[in-house]
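S., here's the first fold you wanted:
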Amino acid sequence: MLNQDLLSAVPVVGRTPRASLLLVALVAALGLTACGQKESKPGQSLVSVDGTEITVLQLNDELQRAGVASAQKDAASKQLLAQLVDRQLLVNQANKDKLDRDPKVLAALERSKALILAEAYLQKQIGAPTRPTKDEVAAYFEKNPQFFASRKLLEMRQLVLATKDLTDEVKAVIDGAKNLDDVAGWLDQHQVKYARGQANRTTADLPAELSSKLISMPKGQLFIVREGERSLLMSIADVKDSPVTLEQSTAQIEQFLMAQKNKQSADAELARLRAAAKIDYLNGATAPAKAAETPPAASAGAAASGSDATARGVAGLK
C-alpha cells in the first residue's frame, strides 16, 4: 500500500555568494568602464588585450581564489592567465555591443556588488571561524548518534516517471500494488515510460523526522517523491547499520560547528543592525508577517505533518 502520510521537506542550505563573485569578475568592467574607454589598472602589467591591461594583481587574485598550492603555482598561473585573456576578450566585445547599458546586466551588477559588500562586511565583523575544541566535537558526536555511532544506511529501489504521467489512475494502481514490480508491469502494459533506479541514503543525509519515518516503514512499502517534472516511486529494500567513529567524523563535525558559529554570529549582527535601523515598508503587500519567522527546521517538521504524500512528495530525496 502507498504510504499517504510520508512527507517532509529537506531544508535548503543557503548558497554562498561565491557564484556572484565569479560573475562580477567576468562583468565588473561593464559597470566600471565606459564603452570603448581604456582602463588603467595598478600593478605590473602581464598582457594587453586590445589596449586593456591584465596585471599581476589580477592574476594573484585568481590564484588565491582557486586555492592553488605553491608547487603548482607556475603551471596554474599560465592556465589562469589564459582564462583572464579569454575573459577580457568577452568583456571587450560586451562593451562594444553596449551590454553595459542593458538593464538586465546593470541589475546583475548591482546585485553582485551588494552580495560582495554584504559578505565582506560579515567577514570583517565575524573574522576567521574559531576551530571547535575536542570537547565540543565529542559532545556533538555523542548528542547525535543517528548521524554517527547509530547511523543507518537505507537502500531504496525506485521507478522514475514523468510527473504528468502520475495520473489518478496510476495512483490507484500504486495504492493497490504489493511492490514496485507490480507497478512496473502495469506501466509496461499501458506503455507509460519509466526508468528503474536505486538510491542509498544514510540517516546523516536526511532530517531526523524523515529518517525515523523511513526506518519504521515495512520493507517494500511504496511512497512517492515529487521532483518537479519527474516523480519517483520508491520503496525501502533494506536498512543496514553503517556506523562511523569519532575519529572518522571529526573533520566533518568541525566544519559543521564552525559554519554554525558563523551563522549565529551573522544572525546576531543582522539582529543588531535591524534594531538600530529605521526600516519602512512602503508597500504593505511586501511587508513580512509580524509573527516571528519559522526556522527552516520547524517548517520542515510542519510540512511533515501533512497527509497527502502523493501531492507534495519528499523534497531532496534522490
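And the second, which I think is the more interesting of the pair:
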Amino acid sequence: MQKTEAAIEAILFTMGESVELSKIAKAIEHDTETTRKLINDMMLRYEEENRGIRIIELENAYQLCTKQEYYDCLVRLALQPKKAVLTEVMLETLSIIAYKQPVTKIEIEKIRGVKCDHAVNKLIEYNLVQELGRLDAPGRPLLLGTTEDFLRNFGVQSTSDLPMVDPVKLEDFKAEAEEEMQLKLDV
C-alpha cells in the first residue's frame, strides 16, 4: 500500500490542482472506493504526523495543499527579494542598451540579429533598464536606457564611466563577424 499511497501523493503534487477521485483511481489501477479509503487514511496520517501539507476534498476530487498555519512562512519566503540572474542574452542586450542609449528595440535587434523582447522585458523587470520616452518617428518606438540600479549594480557613477572598447579588438571582432556571416551565406 505504501507504493500506492506514494503514487497518489505524486499525482496530487504534480497536478497542483484538484483531481477527480475516478481519475486517481484509474491512474493507480484501483476502484474508487479503495482509492477513497487510501486517500482518507493519508489525510488522517498527515494530520496525526503534524505535516506541513494536507489533502483536501473538493466535490469528489482531492488536492494536496499547504496547511493554513504555515501561510506566514510562505508569505515571508515570497517577499524575499529574488536574485536576478542575467543570462548571456540579457547581458548582451544590456550592454547594447548601456552603450547606445537611448536606443529602440529595433536598433538592438539589428545589432544582435535576433528578437530581444524577452531580454528587454526581463531587464525592465529587474529594474536595470527603463523606458526613456518615444522616438519621434513613425510608430513612435520606445526609447530604452539604463537605470540608477544599473549604475549601482555595475559600480559606475555614470555610463561615461563604462569601459571603452579597444579599437583594435573592435576591428578584429568586426572582421570575425563578417567572416562568420560569409560562412553562413556560403552554406
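Why I say that: The longest helix spans residues 167-186. The chain has two domains: 2-76, 88-186.

Talk tomorrow,
H.
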